[in-house]
Amino acid sequence: MSELASPGQLRWSFVRWALVCVPLILLLGILSGRLSNSGYGNPWFDALAKPAIMPPGWAFGVAWTILYILMGFALAIILNARGARAREAAIALFAGQLVLNLAWSPLFFAAHKITLAFWLILALLVLAALTTAAFAGIRRAAALLMLPYLAWLGFAATLNYQFIALNPQAETLVPNVPKAQIDL
After folding, report:
1. How far apart are alpha carbons 54 and 45 in whole angstroms?
2. Domain that holds residue 48
3. Does 180 reside within a domain?
4. Rounded CA gap, 61 and 53, in Å?
């Protein structure tokens, strides 16, 4: 027998990787957003002037859910490509860009460092592009699954830049939040 694994075994191996990667990446993305109080409902964010190209709040949840699912499938394809040249480097690039991705929301929404968040998202865009190129050298399908993510990162970087332009005081802004304090 010259085969190491049958096509059916390879298919099930991919399914196992996908069953781990997709929910894990989606969960990490949700946690990053929730723990940093991202989006509308955050008093600091609500006080900022919004760019004209700002989508409605619900669009971010839908977009990121889809993007994290696609990223999970892309990673599962690469993890399943055992023996592929440069597989480990591609996985390392993916992990690096995911760390930057997960750091953006806390930096922007919790720390209010919108200028630093802009530079971070530019670095993320470069690293995600390198990841996509590395994925393309292993499995074309994995790279194709990363393309919507690259497009969204470009849009998000533009949006981040517009927040900086419209809100030069954003990093020092303290919104007027009612306090439940009783003076005795």
Report:
1. 13
2. 9-168
3. no
4. 17
| CA gap 129, 43 in Å, rounded | 34
Kindly state whether residue 178 falls inside one of the protein's structural domains.
Answer: no
Confidence (pLDDT) at 179 = 60
Round the average pLDDT of the chain to a whole number and report it. 91
- Whether residue 177 is contained in a domain is answered as no
Contacts 24+ apart (CB under 8 A), 175-179: 175/43, 175/44, 175/46, 175/47, 176/47, 177/43
User: What digits encode the pLDDT tens for the residues 57-98?
Assistant: 999 999 999 999 999 999 999 999 888 899 999 999 999 999
CA distance 67 to 148: 7
For residue 98, count other CB atoms closer than 10 A to its CB: 21
Joined together, the tokens standing for residue 109 give 């929404």
Within a domain: residue 176? Answer: no
